[in-house]
Known about the structure:
Elements: H1 12-23, E1 35-46, H2 48-61, E2 65-70, H3 94-104, E3 109-115, H4 129-134, E4 141-146, E5 159-162, E6 166-170, E7 202-203, E8 205-210, H5 212-227, E9 251-262, E10 271-272, H6 273-283, E11 288-293, H7 299-311, E12 316-320, H8 328-348, E13 354-363, E14 366-369, E15 371-372, E16 375-379, E17 383-387, H9 393-397, E18 401-407, H10 411-429, H11 433-438, H12 443-451, E19 457-461, H13 470-479, H14 487-494, H15 497-519, H16 528-536, H17 544-557, H18 562-573, H19 575-621, H20 624-633, H21 639-648, H22 653-673, H23 675-683, H24 687-717
Parallel strand pairs: 2-3, 3-4, 7-15, 11-12, 12-13
Antiparallel strand pairs: 1-8, 1-9, 2-5, 5-6, 6-8, 9-10, 9-18, 11-16, 13-14, 13-19, 16-17, 17-18
Helix pairs in contact: 6-7, 7-8, 8-13, 14-19, 16-18, 17-18, 17-19, 18-19, 18-22, 19-21, 19-22, 20-22, 20-24, 22-24
Amino acid sequence: MEPVERSERLDANAIGEVHLLQSSSTLIPGDTVWRRCEARRVAVLNDAAAYFAALRQALLEAQDLVYIIGWDIHSQTRLVGESGRADDGLPEQLGPFLRALVHRRPALRINILVWDFVSFYASEREWNSATKFTAGTDGRVRFHFDSTLPFGSAQHQKIVCVDGSLAFVGGLDLTIRRWDTSDHCADHALRRDPQGKPYLPFHDVQCMVEGDAAAWLFDLAQGRWRAAGQQIEDQCALKSIRWPATVPVEAEHVPVGIARTDVVCPAGSTIREVERSMIAAIRSATSFVYIENQFTSAIKIARELAEQMLRVPSVRVLVVAPKLHSSWLESQAMQNGRGAFIDYFNAAGVADRIRFVYPVSRSGDTEAAVMVHSKLMIIDDRILRIGSANLNNRSMGADSECDLIFEAASDQHRDFVASVRHRLIAHFCGLDEQAVTQNEDRLFALLDDVSRTDGTKTLRDVESSVLTSTLATMVQPVADPELPLHLERAASRMWRTKTLIGIASIAVALVGLAMAWSYTSLSDLADAGRISTLLSAYSQSVWGPAFAIAAFVVGGLAVFPVLVLIAATAAALGPWLGFVTALAGVLLSACILFVIGRGLGRERLQQLLGRRAARIQERVVGKGVLAVVIIRMIPIAPFSLVNVVAGASTLPLRDFLVGTLLGMTPGILAMAVLGAQIADLARNASWSSILLLALAFLGWLGVCAGAQFVAAWLAGRR
Length: 718
């Protein structure tokens, strides 16, 4: 990062540029915003208790159609206000509440769209969410995971639209471990997850709008629903609903822009309105920039802020962020980015006019850092933006985001924006709004005064720190990319001639080795009697079965004929111990080769196929248990080769192992227990014996088909 040269004075051109930007709107449809419209009424909801209470009231008035768009949603989220209780007769938890709501209003439909998260979030997400929201609703609550974004990108918008009349936008998802009041007590009896585990104070901001802004947000939500592959039902004219009675109207008829980041758009382009609108707003700053954000790692935004502070020496900046990130993985991924973001201002020579702070709450001897999750920016009390976009790279160009940008058009609007800023700072410091207003000219000094007292709340300086671990260095570019990762595009670069020749060589070698055991001098070694004699030396030892299982593993890696190993094991260890040992050896060998195949080929295969072809493959492989059974019972390819190829497909390991178990068991059992009888049957076959064998085969296929049904049912449940 090159240091920014410090300017000692503003030249005439810079002054003219600043005044031009200040006097003109930053809301330019098709450039900095998607739509510029008007919010007939606006309220800023500070923290989840206020948001959940307002949303609950709005949903109770819903008549026709609700869209809930989120990064995460949890059926056990308690949709309650500051009291922690609901008094409307409906369940407090979100899933049961929505189900009860559609039963109360038979014409109401609710569409829920949530990001189809990547696997390392699985432990944090709810199991079987769809059923918990939709059960018993006759299809009037629909739940869909959005999997349309490129790998590595996330559906990060947090929007709720009610009948196209009211809309909520901000940083809050309707999920657990979000609820808190603006008191942010160090310990709160109601701040518990569904397992009763307490979590730290949590701060976020959501806004509620009415009028044209709500109507356009409804269109945006409907477009996201359609882009995710879901049908739009025929609908009657949307009904206007009442503004929640307990929510004060803070401003009226405010110009507002809707800014997006979106990667699900034609020709692989990216909509970057969030980034452009943020840069335009920063370039218009002349006095004070207030920021609340969970992540600060977008160096482009740091550069814009620093350069504006150099152009306009009167600009000061206050950034409220979390002390630490919420998980170890986030720390590994984002801490270096935050350190570089903070260091940029030191290099620019403007660090004395910017403060990075985190909020703390105390209760007796207990002290807790408040988790700042909000995504808010205020410029000169003229521009207020609230939404889902973090100040990180991925929110600028890799994820889907939605921000509302309010632009003051009157003194009343400026008073509204100033009041939001004063209120937020005051609630972090344990002060009233008036105290912040009266100390406007010495705000940083006021923060220092508060930090020296023994009050229940304070703001402390964030320390710039950088992780030097190899993991942090590797994770950050993937966790915070500036653009979608586009693995399909990367795959096209990986599948070069050299790669294809290498993979083809491996396949030919496997087939060639399998044939060598049968048709060359190696066939002398592949004799069941010879192998049986070798294993018999260990047959009386406790290590006999283990030695035999190891032989299956080594044999699998060497593409040794598995039937020879099965026959030799049964002969050496006896029918029953031989059966169990051979079955264990077959499964272990198959599993190891499957894992090798997956490591070598699955990602490349899926990337080569592309998204649509991969989905078709997944549907075909959905019959995996039965397919594996048939291949095992009618061996059309060497055992080892089948295992590796299965690993390189999208076949689940569970289906592969179940299919192998069911497909190999009859043959292993027959060879172990009925070896001599099978040979006699082959020599003296009769129509009756053939019929019995055919019936046994069909009966076993019926058992395997039942296993396939169970596997498919379990997959559907997931």
